Structure formats: structure tokens, C-alpha cells
Amino acid sequence: MPRRWFRYFVWIPPPPPPPPIPSPPQHYQQSQTQQPTYPQHPYYPMYYPPTYIPFPQPAYPLTPEEELEMLKEYKRVLEEDLRELQDELRSVEERIRELEERLRKSRGGFG
User: Fold this and answer.
1) What pTM, to 2 d.p., does this model score?
2) Distant-in-sequence, close-in-space partners of 29: CB < 8 Å, separation ≥ 6
3) Is there a domain that residue 86 lies in?
4) Cα–Cα distance measured from residue 73 to residue 66, given in angstroms and rounded to the nearest whole number
5) How many CA atoms are closer than 13 Å to the CA of 34, on its beta-carbon side?
6) Is 110 among the domain residues?
7) Taken in order 48, 49, 50, 52, is the CA torsion positive or negative?
8) Contacts of 39 by beta carbon, 8 Å cutoff, 6+ apart
9) Rounded to an integer, what distance in angstroms lies between the CA atom of residue 41 and that of residue 49?
10) What ranges does the record list as Low complexity composition bias (predicted)?
11) Is residue 35 part of a domain?
């Protein structure tokens, strides 16, 4: 993920914890000091992924000069992110080629 991703993301708070499991009937309880346990919840204690906002929205109307400055900075950040992603893509493609070559050699040796 590019380093400046957080500038263009919005935080969604984590979901609330699930309700406690209801207590069993009194004669099943061994100890009154037991803490309530929580059922397994698919997102707890994980967080929801951030929601992508394709363009930063200013809180107030911008002058043309401010908007131009903001757009230039946004373009610079996007270009830097693009370079990082292209580097990552190249390394992934290289790893794919290595693994495919290794698989070809191992299959050829047994065939």
C-alpha cells in the first residue's frame, strides 16, 4: 500500500463487540466470578477496511489558486504511488516467472 494512502481514506470505526453469551441456569454455574465470554465474531477484534475516497473533498470552497495547488499536490502523490505500485507489480511478475520456470523444470524432470 503506498505510504500516503491515509490521506485519501476515511476511518470507519470497528463494529461493536457482540453481546455476551447468556448465563447458563444457576445450578450449572461453578463460579460467580466468571467473566462473560464473547462468541466468535467474524470481524471482532479486527477492523473494517477503510473506505476509499477517490478525491479529497475540501471542507470549504477553494479559490482557483488553492484548487490548482491542491490538484498539483494530489497529482504528485498519485504519481509517486503509481511508481511504487509499478515497482511492486514488477517484483510480483518476476516472482511469478521464477515459480513458473521452477514448476516447468520440475515437471520436465519427472516426465
Assistant:
1) 0.41
2) 23
3) yes
4) 11
5) 14
6) yes
7) negative
8) 18, 21
9) 16
10) 26-41
11) no
Residue that the C-alpha cell 445450578 belongs to: 27
Residues paired with residue 10 on neighbouring β-strands, in sequence order: 51
Q: Which residue has the cell 467474524?
A: 42
Give 16 or 11, the one with higher predicted confidence.
16
4 and 83 Cβ atoms separated by less than 8 Å: no
Cell, residue 23: 448465563
Q: Which amino acid is at 43?
A: Y
Distance between CA atoms of residues 70 and 75, nearest Å:
9
* Residues 36 and 17: beta-carbon distance below 8 Å: no
Q: How distant is the alpha carbon of residue 101 from its chain centre?
A: 32
Residue-range definition of the domain harbouring residue 69: 63-111
Residue in this structure with the C-alpha cell 461453578, named with its chain if needed: 30
Q: Considering its fold, how many domains does the chain have in total? A: 1
pLDDT digits (tens, 9 = 90+) for 39-63: 555 544 444 444 555 566 667 788 8
